[in-house]
Amino acid sequence: MKIGYPCINQSLDCSSSRTFRLASYTEERLIELVEQNLACLRRILEYNVEHDMLFFRLTSGLIPFASHPVNTYNWQEHFTMTFRRLGDYIKKHNMRISMHPDQFVVLNSPNEQTVQNSIAELVYQGTILDLMGLDTTAKLQIHGGGAYGDKATALGRFAGVYHNQLPDAVKARLCVENDDRTYSLQDCLYLHQLTGVPIIFDNLHHECINNGEPMREAVEMAAQTWHPEHDGILMMDYSAQALGERKGKHVQSIPEQLFHDFLAETEGLDMDIMLEIKDKEASALKAVEVAKSLGRLK
DNA sequence: CGCGGTCAAGTGGCT
DNA sequence: AGCCACTTGACCGCG
Known about the structure:
The chain has 298 residues and is an alpha/beta fold. It has eleven helices and eight strands. It has an eight-stranded parallel barrel with strand order 1-2-3-4-5-6-7-8, surrounded by five helices. The structure holds a DNA duplex (15 and 15 nucleotides).
């Protein structure tokens, strides 16, 4: 088991997703900002290693406008060695890496342009993992997309894009997460049947929409969609409901007892857990201690 | 130099 | 009909 948090470290005084507006785009500025983003990423990774957090999600914003037509710069070549060194560090410390393309990536959109933009974004994010030299256990995590009034048809469209349009390099890394309002775990398992994509499990989303599966059973079903050699062990997002807030809203800080209970409920199951909690590494640190106390983490 | 409006992109639920 | 949330606020113009 590995534990981690997404994208941002609030203890460090740097950001790996500094960016700029389209209106102020210049190549010079792009290069300078990417250098800063990658330098910060290195610091975050070092912090994580020091604190036994070996699971981390890279921000989508590492390369600004990477899949936008305005960016014609060959950043892949320019930063080849930087990415390789980052990847070497990740591999040396046996870290697990994911990326989560944002809500604009919708593979089942009826809008062809949206689909093409989505593919371009997935190619960009996959390229980063490729340049780092990471194997296919480093994943790109997206949602099923929209329902458009008919989930079965929409998932069929997803499968069509998957089989006919996605490059192999993206297919090898793609996984789909159950979301909190449209595609439940069951829906995702159906998509897995159509495509073979592993299903990344989100416990809070599962609490929002489900078909009555108890938590342990749900984790087991998701885990079965991961091919041990090709995909690695199950990745999951862990969060808890912010009390009194909109359903699905993440808490500010991890309720340690709830996390303890979750680990107890899933005893014997191996997985890597991403803490989607507002205060980031602070909660991840607490989670690491809880997991260690239960002997789930060395 | 701090504040607040705004920023590439989609979708659906809530008010 | 418009606002908000989403894996993450950051940027920039203005006062």
